[in-house]
Amino acid sequence: MTSNSETFPDDLLQLQERLHRARAEHGAFLAGLPWSVEPVVGWARGEKYSHRGDVPDSPGWSDEQKETVDRMWAELRELSIAVVDHPHWAMVPRDGLVEARMLLKKQTRIDAGEVAEAA
After folding, report:
1. For residues 65-77, average pLDDT
2. Number of H helices, E strands in the chain
3. Cβ contact 34:57 at 8 Å
4. In the predicted structure, residue 47 carries a pLDDT above the cut 60
5. Is 95 left (phi over 0), alpha (psi -120 to 50) or beta?
């Protein structure tokens, strides 16, 4: 088992912080995009999916927006792999991996306002 005094290598802490930041930036970017990747005509409440209310037309995403999302996903995958495959995990007892992983996430959690200011 791990303890709250677990220390992580600096490079692993930095990777996890970058992963948190990349995930937050990705979510913020997606939130600003039209609701559909491809152009779709919206609908009025009651026509379909009435629980959503009126849904406006979506112009779809531009090629630049699609490329940005693809680039962001690639970065998220690379960072996730780098964190999971870090040599530090080989030194953590198997029964403590989940606890240690959660502790790493908690220690490196970034403030959402910090991401918004950086953007």
Report:
1. 98
2. 4, 0
3. no
4. yes
5. alpha
